[in-house]
């Protein structure tokens, strides 16, 4: 674009160019935004700009002409009307720190990352607020049942955007919503972030269950009791329990635990046959947020004094060499208890 076009066009920055970032960049481009898709990888940027394809993460799908990949952070965010952060949780702070000097105070900031920062156990809105020098109340989180592989092909998808300030959630809703990508608003930022992060742990467990040859009964129990764990930790962290019955909760849990597109499910499935974790992650070739989140949730459960037996067992499988089958036996052999924890 020319300098004149840059100053007058609706511009959105998307950071970074993974599968989900690219899919959301496509949504914004289809809505008329000139999208600056930032990546550290010059080869990937050239592939997107010259071949109109992100061949590493979403091969075979032609990208809209309004998407322009760049490795220049200043170019990506300086004139952006909105900045959508889709960096992995472990890289979010670094990416935000790089973007901070060039972001206008008027730029709407959204993130679509499902995880916690490993060392601080902070949610992504807290990380962004610290690095961007903004109140967390000004930020928006996007979550819900949404595989990049389906969104990029314009298959019907429904998500939620959450912010403590309704006007910011509605700005994000207006920017993203279209005929195949429906967006609801929600004021419960902690609930939406916790649900999006913890469901990846349950998806690892779903993959383990399937890999061990268990049936639908086991999968249904895992999802149901997994949702209870999500709600238990979420409400302890200040969330509204109703959020977990919505798109960010049960919706995202179902799609992540049952779909061939779920990288967390695939990782769990590979772990079931005894493949070492490092080998699984190497074969995946993409970030598996559930692994990092399991460690964080294990620590958060202790911090908030809540019981998360599924998370505990997956932690043992991932980081203490416990066999998946023994973990299942441990869960099934727990002492009897009530399903509804508070009666009356």
Automatic annotation (TrEMBL):
Pfam families named among the record's database cross-references: NAD_Gly3P_dh_C (PF07479), NAD_Gly3P_dh_N (PF01210)
Molecular function per GO: glycerol-3-phosphate dehydrogenase [NAD(P)+] activity
Primary subcellular site in the record, as a coarse category: cytoplasm
Enzyme Commission identifier(s): 1.1.1.94
Reactions catalysed: sn-glycerol 3-phosphate + NAD(+) = dihydroxyacetone phosphate + NADH + H(+); sn-glycerol 3-phosphate + NADP(+) = dihydroxyacetone phosphate + NADPH + H(+)
Domain Glycerol-3-phosphate dehydrogenase NAD-dependent C-terminal: residue ranges: 188-329
Alphabetical UniProt keywords: Cytoplasm, Lipid biosynthesis, Lipid metabolism, NAD, NADP, Nucleotide-binding, Oxidoreductase, Phospholipid biosynthesis, Phospholipid metabolism
Residues at the catalytic site: 199 (proton acceptor)
Domain Glycerol-3-phosphate dehydrogenase NAD-dependent N-terminal: 13-166
UniProt-annotated binding residues for NADPH: 19-20, 40, 114, 148, 263, 287, 289
Chain segments annotated as transmembrane: none
Function comment: Catalyzes the reduction of the glycolytic intermediate dihydroxyacetone phosphate (DHAP) to sn-glycerol 3-phosphate (G3P), the key precursor for phospholipid synthesis.
NCBIfam families in UniProt: PRK00094.1-2, PRK00094.1-3, PRK00094.1-4
Name of this protein: Glycerol-3-phosphate dehydrogenase [NAD(P)+]
Organism of provenance: Paenibacillus harenae
Gene: gpsA
């Amino acid at each position: 674009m020319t300098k004149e076009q840059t100053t007058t066009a609706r511009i959105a920055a998307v950071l970074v160019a993974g599968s989900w970032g690219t899919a959301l960049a496509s949504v914004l481009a289809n809505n008329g935004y000139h999208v600056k898709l930032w990546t550290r990888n010059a080869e990937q940027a050239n592939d997107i700009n010259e071949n109109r394809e992100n061949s590493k993460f979403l091969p075979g799908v032609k990208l809209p002409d309004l998407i322009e990949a760049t490795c220049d952070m200043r170019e990506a965010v300086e004139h952006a009307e909105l900045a959508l952060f889709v960096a992995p949780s472990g890289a979010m702070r670094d990416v935000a720190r790089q973007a901070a000097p060039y972001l206008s105070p008027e730029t709407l900031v959204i993130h679509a990352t499902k995880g916690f920062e490993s060392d601080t156990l902070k949610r992504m809105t807290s990380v962004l607020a610290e690095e961007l020098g903004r109140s967390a109340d000004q930020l928006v989180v996007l979550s819900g049942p949404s595989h990049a592989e389906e969104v990029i092909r314009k298959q019907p998808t429904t998500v939620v955007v959450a912010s403590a300030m309704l006007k910011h959630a509605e700005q994000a809703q207006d920017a993203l919503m279209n005929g195949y990508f429906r967006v609801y608003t929600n004021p419960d930022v902690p609930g939406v972030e916790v649900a999006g992060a913890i469901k990846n742990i349950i998806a690892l467990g779903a993959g383990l269950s399937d890999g061990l040859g268990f049936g639908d009964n086991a999968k249904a129990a895992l999802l149901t009791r997994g949702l209870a764990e999500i709600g238990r930790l979420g409400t302890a962290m200040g969330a509204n329990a109703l959020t977990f019955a919505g798109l960010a909760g049960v919706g995202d849990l179902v799609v992540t635990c049952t779909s061939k597109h779920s990288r967390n499910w695939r990782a769990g499935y590979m772990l079931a046959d005894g493949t070492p974790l490092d080998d699984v992650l190497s074969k995946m070739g993409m970030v598996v947020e559930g692994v990092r989140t399991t460690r964080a949730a294990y620590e958060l459960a202790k911090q908030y004094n809540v019981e998360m037996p599924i998370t505990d067992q997956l932690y043992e499988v991932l980081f203490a060499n416990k066999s998946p089958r023994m973990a299942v036996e441990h869960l099934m052999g727990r002492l009897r208890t009530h399903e509804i924890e508070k009666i009356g």
